[in-house]
Protein: Acetate kinase
Amino acid sequence: MSTVFVVNSGSSSIKYQLIDLDTEKALMTGLIERIGEPGSFIADHAEGMAVVLAKLGDIDDLLAVGHRVVHGGSDFDGPTLITAEVEREIDALSRLAPLHNPANLLGIRAARAALPNVPHVAVFDTAFHQTMPPESYTYAIPKAIAHEYKVRRYGFHGTSHKYVSEQAAIVLGKPLTSLRTIVLHLGNGASATAVDGGKSIDTSMGMTPLQGLVMGTRSGDIDPAVLVHLNRAAGMSITELDVMLNRESGLLGLTGSGDMRDVQTAAIAGDEDAELALQVWRHRIRHYIGAYYAQLGGLDALVFTAGVGENNGLLRRRALAGLEHLGIMIDNDRNELASKAARVISPVGAPVTVMVIPTNEELEIARQVASIV
Ligand SMILES: Nc1ncnc2c1ncn2[C@@H]1O[C@H](COP(=O)(O)OP(=O)(O)O)[C@@H](O)[C@H]1O
Ligand SMILES: CC(=O)OP(=O)(O)O
Ligand SMILES: [Mg+2]
Structure:
């Protein structure tokens, strides 16, 4: 037996799994939440990792440690052995993913110090999207500035989009290379990806994980001139605008809660702000479904994944209602079935197979780690 320990250090949490490569089962899983929040026992990521590593204890057959890293820029298109140089590059990319890369790096440093005798491998959220064509990743700004400052679309949640689109092909029993798929990763952060024959051809997040869908605390798409306007008219600084868009917007900004469960409960109770937030959330999802349907030249599969996508049938139904003219429809009984398994929720014979597929970023990371060590 050989195992890979996978660490997913988020902005306020550390998720971890010890995965047996032979069976692909998790021998140990855990989550440390609310790091650094008032009342939390854990002050920072270094302390959090110490707790995690104490739980891990001594493992004889540990092959390697895999780390989720959110931003890999254009330099990383696959799993990468972590060296001091790679750590420096991850650090340099922190500016482009301020909620994520610093936390990822703290996790890497703590784990490398505690487990110095095994290889540590970084698996980047951006890697899967490196197949996007230039017309998808280029912003129409002056070429020299874009080049100098690495301004382009990178895309995120790639490990999840890759895993889920491959699982979709397995559920359908068709070759991945023959499928046009849209994956909706709807968690706290959320993104949509168009996957053509197993390759990402477009995705809704941009240079940073701020662009695209409406998220828990992030605005998603916005006219960039809003920033200029708020700077001039309201005297808001660049830092204030950054905090507003990344941490105070999205569902939180529209309703006072960034948790979709609260928003839904409030909407059902008749709260008008919550109802509008759900409509904006849904409108943005449909915007991307339409765009990717056009880009893919048709659609074979549409897949829901992550916290909201996996667990909330009512919101799945709301997101897709009225898209029957595109061949996209949901079977209510299949959709309501309380199940943790990958499954089809469209009616038998529907032109587009709609699915719910639980993501497993940790397993995908372990597989990629095993592929290089
Ligand atoms: N039954 C549910 N209905 C609606 N939203 C849910 C449900 N269960 C979980 N969520 C949402 O899923 C989010 C977490 O999703 P997850 O994929 O774990 O995100 P992340 O990896 O970004 O932390 C939470 O913010 C919560 O709002
Ligand atoms: C990239 C990103 O948004 O990640 P998460 O959903 O884990 O915040
Ligand atoms: Mg996530």
Notes: The longest strand covers residues 25-32. Residues 272-296 form the longest helix (25 residues).
